[in-house]
Hints:
Layout: E1 25-29, E2 32-42, H1 45-54, H2 64-75, E3 85-93, E4 96-101, E5 110-113, E6 119-122, H3 125-132, H4 139-148, E7 162-163, E8 169-172
Antiparallel strand pairs: 1-2, 2-3, 3-4, 4-8, 5-6, 5-7
Amino acid sequence: KKDNIVFGHMRLAIIDLEERSNQPFTYCHKGKSILLTFNGEIYNYISIKNELSIKGYEFATNSDTEVIAASFLEWGASCFDHFIGMWAIAIKSEGELILSRDRVGKKPFYYSVSDTRQISFSSSMKALALITDQYKIDKKGLELYFALGYTPAKYSILENIFKVEPGEIFVFSKIEN
């Protein structure tokens, strides 16, 4: 936790099993730092890491998470254009919260914004419902689920819980440090 920002993460370690790669993950380069949490895998992270190393970025882990962090510092939100893989990523940087989901939508990603502008997010709708105390059924979302066998677009079966769509990037500004 840093001021009003809380990131939590349950990690299934596949790449770089060392504790140094645990999340939430903080990365610093030339006086800039970011905090991120990430669900997924970036398949081409080694080639991106090599490109960033040439540009002067240093790496303390062998994880794709650290490469995501360095990529964001180098390219901003366009870093997601460089990634091949599946992901649900949340990044806190310079007063912004960035949420990104992979282009195919392989990794689920849900968010909620409360009346007090509290932003909550998770790869699990159940976990997000617990965090936000949102259990009321969204009639339109449920109707669409029964009609189609899934909930399209941003709908979910719970009120005030929405999906980050495949390939979508949300930027929430004025997040206090």
